[in-house]
Amino acid sequence: xxxxxxxxxxxxALNLGEQVRGLAAVIxxxxxTPAMGDMLxxxxxxxxxxxxxxxxxxxxxxxxxxxTKPCTTVTVSGLDVAETIKAxxxxxxxxxLYALSSQGTLYTLDAATGVATRKSDLSxxxxxxxxxxxxxxxxxxxxxxxxxxxxxxxxxxxxxxxIVSTGGETL
Length: 171
Description:
171 residues
């Protein structure tokens, strides 16, 4: 993870059927405890009880030098019943971990407790008259704060969020 070269990782702490949904680097001041790693992985899993299947998420912290050995693991809570997390990223402006849900809701995730707190809902820009946003399509997503961010003369960075999908949409 520290070289920038893509490679396959195996996460021995994953349960059967659990998949990694996203990775995010932690900004050092936001680390809640010394035991937490410097990277966060979000996983998704399914639970079936009778004829009902529900989905859940775990947040694992790990270190870049030992990415296959999680430091901490917490279950994510606080999402609406029908929501799943599609992507995560750390926002440089406030150091918080953000998650995009399947319902187009942005949450912050507490890396120590797994508690999701609703922050905002995606909505169409009133200047987008051609093909305005109405809902997230059924695709996989990635998100990035300050993707290609513009640095201002005072040293600050624009606070923009870019969301991309495997279907080619950029929000």
